[in-house]
Amino acid sequence: MSEPQHSATPASGKLLRGLWIGLAALCFALGLAGVLLPLLPTTPFMLLAAALASKGSPRFAHWIRAHPVAGPAISHWDRERAIAGRAKCLAVAALLLSAGVVLLTLESLTLALCIVAGLAGVGAWLVTRPGPSQPPDH
């Protein structure tokens, strides 16, 4: 005997849609803050915002992809899994700055070195991503 299938009620569908949109808006806001704050990344939050918005509001997702700050990076990533050279340089600079702050402020050398190793891994992954082969279509 099989379990009964539960379908989402209209109210729970609206709640879930609202949750996706809210999380997308939060990620988008964090991504915009990352434009101004050197230790906060922009691109990962914008990519996450576009993905979350796609689940809750295709119109919001389209707006994010067309945004002058977020759009080009998202287009490069969606099309080619590529990261522009300027974005890589800024990200690596932020990682180096973060590593310096960690090394200077944490009392535990072991913990600091573990964090720096993680940051180095992220940096290595970033610099090995290809650059975009063509400009975005925005």
Automatic annotation (TrEMBL):
Under the heading Pfam families, the entry gives:
DUF454
Q: Does the keyword Membrane apply?
A: yes
- Give Gene Ontology CC terms: plasma membrane
User: Origin, by domain of life?
Assistant: Bacteria
Q: Which residues form the signal peptide?
A: none
| Membrane-spanning parts | 20-40, 87-104, 110-128
Where would you say this protein principally sits, based on its record? Answer: membrane
The record, for InterPro entries, names: DUF454 (IPR007401)
Q: How does it sit in the membrane?
A: Multi-pass membrane protein
Record's keyword terms, sorted: Cell inner membrane, Cell membrane, Membrane, Transmembrane, Transmembrane helix
Where does it localize?
Cell inner membrane
The answer on whether this UniProt entry bears the keyword Cell membrane reads yes
Against PANTHER family, the record matches this protein to: INNER MEMBRANE PROTEIN YBAN
Name this protein carries in UniProt: Inner membrane protein
Classification from the root reads:
Bacteria, Pseudomonadati, Pseudomonadota, Gammaproteobacteria, Oceanospirillales
